[in-house]
Design a protein that fits this description.
globular, mainly alpha, 69% helix, 14 helices, Cytochrome Bc1 Complex, Chain C, two-stranded antiparallel ribbon, 2 strands
Protein backbone atom coordinates (compact mmCIF):
# COMPACT_ATOMS: atom_id res chain seq x y z
CA UNK A 1 0.00 0.00 0.00
CA UNK A 2 1.42 3.42 -0.99
CA UNK A 3 1.73 5.83 1.98
CA UNK A 4 -0.53 8.90 1.81
CA UNK A 5 2.45 11.29 1.93
CA UNK A 6 4.06 9.55 -1.04
CA UNK A 7 0.78 9.67 -3.00
CA UNK A 8 0.45 13.40 -2.32
CA UNK A 9 4.02 14.01 -3.50
CA UNK A 10 3.37 12.08 -6.71
CA UNK A 11 0.12 13.96 -7.29
CA UNK A 12 1.88 17.27 -6.72
CA UNK A 13 4.67 16.33 -9.14
CA UNK A 14 2.10 15.21 -11.73
CA UNK A 15 0.25 18.53 -11.51
CA UNK A 16 3.40 20.68 -11.59
CA UNK A 17 4.68 18.85 -14.66
CA UNK A 18 1.47 19.43 -16.60
CA UNK A 19 0.67 22.88 -15.18
CA UNK A 20 4.08 24.55 -14.70
CA UNK A 21 2.79 27.51 -12.69
CA UNK A 22 5.13 29.20 -10.24
CA UNK A 23 3.48 28.65 -6.87
CA UNK A 24 5.49 31.44 -5.30
CA UNK A 25 3.89 33.91 -7.70
CA UNK A 26 0.42 32.77 -6.60
CA UNK A 27 1.43 32.98 -2.94
CA UNK A 28 2.84 36.49 -3.39
CA UNK A 29 -0.34 37.60 -5.18
CA UNK A 30 -2.45 36.29 -2.34
CA UNK A 31 -0.35 37.94 0.33
CA UNK A 32 -0.13 41.28 -1.49
CA UNK A 33 -0.81 44.11 0.98
CA UNK A 34 -4.06 46.01 0.49
CA UNK A 35 -4.61 49.65 1.62
CA UNK A 36 -6.01 49.77 5.15
CA UNK A 37 -9.12 51.78 4.27
CA UNK A 38 -10.43 48.80 2.25
CA UNK A 39 -11.24 47.02 5.51
CA UNK A 40 -14.44 49.07 5.44
CA UNK A 41 -16.69 47.32 2.92
CA UNK A 42 -18.06 50.53 1.41
CA UNK A 43 -14.58 51.31 0.07
CA UNK A 44 -14.48 48.06 -1.90
CA UNK A 45 -17.93 48.04 -3.50
CA UNK A 46 -16.40 46.94 -6.81
CA UNK A 47 -16.45 43.31 -5.71
CA UNK A 48 -20.20 43.43 -5.00
CA UNK A 49 -21.40 43.92 -8.61
CA UNK A 50 -18.85 41.31 -9.74
CA UNK A 51 -20.39 38.77 -7.36
CA UNK A 52 -23.91 39.76 -8.49
CA UNK A 53 -22.81 39.35 -12.11
CA UNK A 54 -21.77 35.76 -11.30
CA UNK A 55 -25.26 35.11 -9.86
CA UNK A 56 -26.74 36.64 -13.01
CA UNK A 57 -24.64 34.35 -15.20
CA UNK A 58 -25.47 31.16 -13.28
CA UNK A 59 -29.21 31.82 -12.98
CA UNK A 60 -29.32 33.12 -16.56
CA UNK A 61 -27.84 29.89 -17.92
CA UNK A 62 -30.41 27.88 -15.95
CA UNK A 63 -33.27 30.00 -17.28
CA UNK A 64 -31.99 29.68 -20.84
CA UNK A 65 -32.57 25.92 -20.73
CA UNK A 66 -36.33 26.56 -20.58
CA UNK A 67 -36.84 29.97 -22.20
CA UNK A 68 -38.01 30.06 -25.85
CA UNK A 69 -37.14 33.40 -27.58
CA UNK A 70 -40.04 33.53 -30.03
CA UNK A 71 -43.10 35.83 -29.85
CA UNK A 72 -45.54 32.91 -29.78
CA UNK A 73 -43.73 30.96 -27.01
CA UNK A 74 -41.69 33.46 -24.96
CA UNK A 75 -44.46 34.39 -22.53
CA UNK A 76 -45.62 30.78 -22.15
CA UNK A 77 -42.08 29.59 -21.41
CA UNK A 78 -41.67 32.27 -18.71
CA UNK A 79 -45.04 31.24 -17.25
CA UNK A 80 -43.88 27.61 -17.21
CA UNK A 81 -40.63 28.59 -15.47
CA UNK A 82 -42.62 30.55 -12.89
CA UNK A 83 -45.46 28.13 -12.23
CA UNK A 84 -44.49 24.61 -13.34
CA UNK A 85 -40.74 23.95 -13.29
CA UNK A 86 -39.39 22.95 -9.89
CA UNK A 87 -37.69 25.95 -8.22
CA UNK A 88 -38.11 27.87 -11.47
CA UNK A 89 -39.82 30.71 -9.60
CA UNK A 90 -36.85 30.93 -7.22
CA UNK A 91 -34.23 31.00 -10.01
CA UNK A 92 -36.18 33.64 -11.94
CA UNK A 93 -36.73 35.75 -8.81
CA UNK A 94 -33.06 35.46 -7.87
CA UNK A 95 -32.12 36.55 -11.39
CA UNK A 96 -34.44 39.55 -11.22
CA UNK A 97 -33.43 40.76 -7.75
CA UNK A 98 -29.70 40.31 -8.38
CA UNK A 99 -30.09 42.38 -11.57
CA UNK A 100 -31.65 45.22 -9.56
CA UNK A 101 -29.01 44.95 -6.86
CA UNK A 102 -26.23 44.94 -9.47
CA UNK A 103 -27.42 48.27 -10.89
CA UNK A 104 -27.53 49.77 -7.38
CA UNK A 105 -24.09 48.37 -6.54
CA UNK A 106 -22.51 49.77 -9.73
CA UNK A 107 -24.07 53.19 -9.07
CA UNK A 108 -22.85 53.23 -5.46
CA UNK A 109 -19.38 52.13 -6.53
CA UNK A 110 -19.20 54.91 -9.14
CA UNK A 111 -20.39 57.47 -6.59
CA UNK A 112 -17.69 56.35 -4.16
CA UNK A 113 -15.03 56.64 -6.86
CA UNK A 114 -16.33 60.04 -7.98
CA UNK A 115 -16.69 61.69 -4.58
CA UNK A 116 -13.28 60.42 -3.37
CA UNK A 117 -11.52 61.68 -6.50
CA UNK A 118 -10.28 58.19 -7.44
CA UNK A 119 -10.96 58.90 -11.13
CA UNK A 120 -8.14 61.44 -11.42
CA UNK A 121 -4.78 61.00 -13.07
CA UNK A 122 -3.65 58.37 -13.88
CA UNK A 123 -7.01 56.62 -13.47
CA UNK A 124 -9.04 58.48 -16.10
CA UNK A 125 -9.19 55.45 -18.39
CA UNK A 126 -10.49 53.21 -15.62
CA UNK A 127 -13.29 55.68 -14.87
CA UNK A 128 -14.31 55.55 -18.54
CA UNK A 129 -14.34 51.77 -18.45
CA UNK A 130 -16.49 52.00 -15.32
CA UNK A 131 -19.01 54.20 -17.16
CA UNK A 132 -19.12 51.60 -19.95
CA UNK A 133 -19.78 48.90 -17.34
CA UNK A 134 -22.71 50.96 -16.01
CA UNK A 135 -24.17 51.35 -19.52
CA UNK A 136 -23.75 47.62 -20.17
CA UNK A 137 -25.46 46.85 -16.85
CA UNK A 138 -28.40 49.05 -17.85
CA UNK A 139 -28.42 47.27 -21.21
CA UNK A 140 -28.72 43.95 -19.37
CA UNK A 141 -31.65 45.32 -17.42
CA UNK A 142 -33.46 46.60 -20.52
CA UNK A 143 -33.00 43.45 -22.62
CA UNK A 144 -33.83 41.10 -19.74
CA UNK A 145 -37.01 43.02 -18.91
CA UNK A 146 -38.08 42.90 -22.56
CA UNK A 147 -37.60 39.11 -22.86
CA UNK A 148 -40.50 38.40 -20.49
CA UNK A 149 -42.80 39.55 -23.31
CA UNK A 150 -45.40 41.04 -21.02
CA UNK A 151 -47.62 43.83 -22.24
CA UNK A 152 -45.59 46.51 -20.43
CA UNK A 153 -42.19 45.09 -21.38
CA UNK A 154 -43.18 44.75 -25.05
CA UNK A 155 -44.40 48.31 -25.31
CA UNK A 156 -41.44 49.55 -23.29
CA UNK A 157 -39.13 47.97 -25.87
CA UNK A 158 -41.23 49.51 -28.65
CA UNK A 159 -40.90 52.96 -27.11
CA UNK A 160 -37.15 52.41 -26.66
CA UNK A 161 -36.81 51.62 -30.37
CA UNK A 162 -38.71 54.79 -31.24
CA UNK A 163 -36.44 56.81 -28.94
CA UNK A 164 -33.41 55.21 -30.57
CA UNK A 165 -34.71 56.43 -33.90
CA UNK A 166 -34.43 60.03 -32.67
CA UNK A 167 -30.63 59.86 -32.44
CA UNK A 168 -29.19 62.12 -35.16
CA UNK A 169 -27.73 60.47 -38.29
CA UNK A 170 -27.48 56.85 -37.08
CA UNK A 171 -30.77 56.62 -35.15
CA UNK A 172 -33.05 55.27 -37.92
CA UNK A 173 -30.56 52.54 -38.84
CA UNK A 174 -30.08 51.53 -35.21
CA UNK A 175 -33.84 51.41 -34.65
CA UNK A 176 -34.39 49.30 -37.78
CA UNK A 177 -31.67 46.92 -36.64
CA UNK A 178 -33.21 46.53 -33.18
CA UNK A 179 -36.76 46.09 -34.50
CA UNK A 180 -35.78 43.89 -37.41
CA UNK A 181 -37.33 46.33 -39.88
CA UNK A 182 -39.19 49.67 -40.06
CA UNK A 183 -41.79 48.38 -37.58
CA UNK A 184 -41.68 46.07 -34.59
CA UNK A 185 -41.54 42.51 -35.88
CA UNK A 186 -40.86 39.00 -34.70
CA UNK A 187 -37.09 39.52 -35.08
CA UNK A 188 -37.00 42.09 -32.28
CA UNK A 189 -37.39 39.55 -29.48
CA UNK A 190 -34.74 37.29 -31.00
CA UNK A 191 -32.28 40.17 -31.31
CA UNK A 192 -32.90 41.25 -27.73
CA UNK A 193 -32.24 37.67 -26.65
CA UNK A 194 -28.96 37.57 -28.60
CA UNK A 195 -27.91 40.86 -27.00
CA UNK A 196 -28.83 39.60 -23.53
CA UNK A 197 -27.06 36.24 -23.60
CA UNK A 198 -24.34 36.86 -26.19
CA UNK A 199 -23.21 40.37 -27.08
CA UNK A 200 -23.64 42.08 -23.70
CA UNK A 201 -21.98 39.33 -21.59
CA UNK A 202 -19.02 39.23 -24.00
CA UNK A 203 -18.59 43.00 -23.86
CA UNK A 204 -19.07 42.98 -20.09
CA UNK A 205 -16.32 40.40 -19.55
CA UNK A 206 -13.88 42.20 -21.89
CA UNK A 207 -14.47 45.61 -20.29
CA UNK A 208 -14.42 44.12 -16.78
CA UNK A 209 -11.04 42.47 -17.42
CA UNK A 210 -9.66 45.79 -18.65
CA UNK A 211 -11.13 47.52 -15.59
CA UNK A 212 -9.51 45.02 -13.21
CA UNK A 213 -6.19 45.18 -15.05
CA UNK A 214 -6.03 48.97 -14.72
CA UNK A 215 -7.11 48.77 -11.09
CA UNK A 216 -4.30 46.31 -10.38
CA UNK A 217 -1.86 48.55 -12.25
CA UNK A 218 -2.77 51.87 -10.65
CA UNK A 219 -4.22 50.70 -7.35
CA UNK A 220 -6.96 52.45 -5.38
CA UNK A 221 -6.27 55.95 -4.16
CA UNK A 222 -9.30 57.79 -2.75
CA UNK A 223 -9.15 61.43 -1.79
CA UNK A 224 -7.28 61.94 1.45
CA UNK A 225 -6.26 58.31 1.95
CA UNK A 226 -2.79 57.76 3.47
CA UNK A 227 -0.06 56.52 1.19
CA UNK A 228 3.61 55.68 1.41
CA UNK A 229 5.54 53.01 3.34
CA UNK A 230 4.04 54.02 6.70
CA UNK A 231 0.41 53.67 5.57
CA UNK A 232 -1.61 50.90 7.21
CA UNK A 233 -1.99 47.79 5.07
CA UNK A 234 -3.24 44.21 5.43
CA UNK A 235 -2.88 41.03 3.32
CA UNK A 236 -5.36 40.32 0.53
CA UNK A 237 -5.64 36.71 1.73
CA UNK A 238 -7.19 36.01 4.15
CA UNK A 239 -8.33 39.44 5.42
CA UNK A 240 -9.80 41.06 2.29
CA UNK A 241 -10.98 37.73 0.86
CA UNK A 242 -12.94 36.96 4.03
CA UNK A 243 -14.54 40.40 3.89
CA UNK A 244 -15.72 39.76 0.33
CA UNK A 245 -17.01 36.29 1.28
CA UNK A 246 -18.94 37.75 4.21
CA UNK A 247 -20.52 40.39 1.95
CA UNK A 248 -21.38 37.70 -0.63
CA UNK A 249 -23.06 35.49 1.99
CA UNK A 250 -25.04 38.44 3.33
CA UNK A 251 -26.16 39.37 -0.19
CA UNK A 252 -27.21 35.79 -0.88
CA UNK A 253 -29.33 35.83 2.28
CA UNK A 254 -30.98 39.13 1.30
CA UNK A 255 -31.59 37.99 -2.29
CA UNK A 256 -33.12 34.71 -1.12
CA UNK A 257 -35.35 36.58 1.34
CA UNK A 258 -36.58 38.93 -1.40
CA UNK A 259 -37.06 36.07 -3.87
CA UNK A 260 -39.28 34.24 -1.36
CA UNK A 261 -41.23 37.23 -0.01
CA UNK A 262 -41.43 39.19 -3.28
CA UNK A 263 -41.13 36.64 -6.12
CA UNK A 264 -41.02 37.77 -9.74
CA UNK A 265 -44.54 38.17 -11.06
CA UNK A 266 -46.02 37.95 -14.52
CA UNK A 267 -48.34 40.50 -16.12
CA UNK A 268 -50.63 40.13 -19.14
CA UNK A 269 -49.14 38.73 -22.34
CA UNK A 270 -47.88 41.23 -24.91
CA UNK A 271 -50.50 42.37 -27.42
CA UNK A 272 -49.08 44.42 -30.32
CA UNK A 273 -52.61 45.61 -31.19
CA UNK A 274 -53.46 47.10 -27.77
CA UNK A 275 -51.43 50.01 -26.40
CA UNK A 276 -51.52 50.18 -22.57
CA UNK A 277 -52.80 53.37 -20.96
CA UNK A 278 -49.49 53.91 -19.14
CA UNK A 279 -46.18 52.48 -20.42
CA UNK A 280 -44.01 51.84 -17.38
CA UNK A 281 -40.24 51.22 -17.62
CA UNK A 282 -38.18 49.62 -14.90
CA UNK A 283 -37.27 51.92 -12.00
CA UNK A 284 -33.69 52.50 -13.22
CA UNK A 285 -35.06 54.19 -16.36
CA UNK A 286 -37.57 56.42 -14.56
CA UNK A 287 -35.20 59.40 -14.83
CA UNK A 288 -34.87 58.98 -18.61
CA UNK A 289 -38.62 58.55 -19.05
CA UNK A 290 -39.39 61.73 -17.09
CA UNK A 291 -36.66 63.60 -19.00
CA UNK A 292 -38.36 62.64 -22.27
CA UNK A 293 -41.64 64.11 -21.03
CA UNK A 294 -40.10 67.49 -20.23
CA UNK A 295 -39.05 68.45 -23.77
CA UNK A 296 -39.40 67.41 -27.41
CA UNK A 297 -38.14 63.89 -28.10
CA UNK A 298 -35.11 64.81 -30.22
CA UNK A 299 -34.03 67.51 -27.76
CA UNK A 300 -34.42 65.07 -24.85
CA UNK A 301 -32.37 62.37 -26.59
CA UNK A 302 -29.66 64.89 -27.52
CA UNK A 303 -29.40 66.31 -23.98
CA UNK A 304 -29.34 62.82 -22.45
CA UNK A 305 -26.49 61.93 -24.81
CA UNK A 306 -24.61 65.06 -23.76
CA UNK A 307 -25.21 64.21 -20.10
CA UNK A 308 -23.75 60.72 -20.54
CA UNK A 309 -20.81 62.16 -22.50
CA UNK A 310 -20.20 64.63 -19.64
CA UNK A 311 -20.03 61.75 -17.15
CA UNK A 312 -17.74 59.73 -19.44
CA UNK A 313 -15.26 62.56 -20.08
CA UNK A 314 -15.50 64.21 -16.66
CA UNK A 315 -11.94 63.21 -15.59
CA UNK A 316 -10.57 65.21 -18.54
CA UNK A 317 -12.85 68.18 -17.80
CA UNK A 318 -11.93 68.08 -14.12
CA UNK A 319 -8.22 68.00 -15.01
CA UNK A 320 -8.62 71.21 -17.05
CA UNK A 321 -10.43 72.89 -14.16
CA UNK A 322 -7.78 71.84 -11.63
CA UNK A 323 -5.01 72.95 -13.97
CA UNK A 324 -6.29 76.51 -13.66
CA UNK A 325 -7.42 76.19 -10.05
CA UNK A 326 -5.37 73.44 -8.32
CA UNK A 327 -7.42 73.54 -5.11
CA UNK A 328 -10.78 73.42 -6.88
CA UNK A 329 -13.25 70.77 -5.79
CA UNK A 330 -15.92 71.74 -8.30
CA UNK A 331 -16.44 68.04 -8.98
CA UNK A 332 -18.07 67.62 -5.56
CA UNK A 333 -20.72 70.21 -6.38
CA UNK A 334 -21.18 68.92 -9.92
CA UNK A 335 -21.56 65.35 -8.66
CA UNK A 336 -23.99 66.34 -5.91
CA UNK A 337 -26.03 68.34 -8.42
CA UNK A 338 -26.12 65.42 -10.89
CA UNK A 339 -27.21 62.94 -8.20
CA UNK A 340 -29.91 65.32 -6.92
CA UNK A 341 -31.12 65.93 -10.51
CA UNK A 342 -31.41 62.23 -11.34
CA UNK A 343 -33.06 61.40 -8.01
CA UNK A 344 -35.59 64.20 -8.54
CA UNK A 345 -36.52 62.89 -12.00
CA UNK A 346 -36.73 59.32 -10.68
CA UNK A 347 -38.97 60.18 -7.72
CA UNK A 348 -41.07 62.51 -9.90
CA UNK A 349 -41.78 59.73 -12.40
CA UNK A 350 -42.38 57.18 -9.63
CA UNK A 351 -44.98 59.44 -7.99
CA UNK A 352 -46.64 60.04 -11.36
CA UNK A 353 -46.93 56.30 -12.04
CA UNK A 354 -48.42 55.71 -8.60
CA UNK A 355 -51.40 57.92 -9.43
Amino acid sequence: MIPISSALVRANDWLRERFPIDQQVLISMGSEPVPGHLKRWWWCLGGTPAYLFIIQAVTGVLLTFYYVPTPDQAYESVAAITNEIRFGWYIRSLHKWSANFMIVAVLLHMMRVFFTGAYRRPREGNWMLGVLLLLLTLGFGFTGYSLVYEQLSFWGATVAANILQSIPFVGPDLADFLRGGPTVGSNMLTRLFVFHIGALPTLMIVVLLGHLLLMRTHGVSPLGSPSGPDAKRFPFIPDHLFTEIAVALFLMFVLTFLAIVFPAGLGPKADPLVTPEHIKPEWYFFWAFRWLKLMPEQAAVATQGLFIALIFFWPLIDARIRKRRPDSEASIWVGAGAVAFLLTLTVWEALYLLH
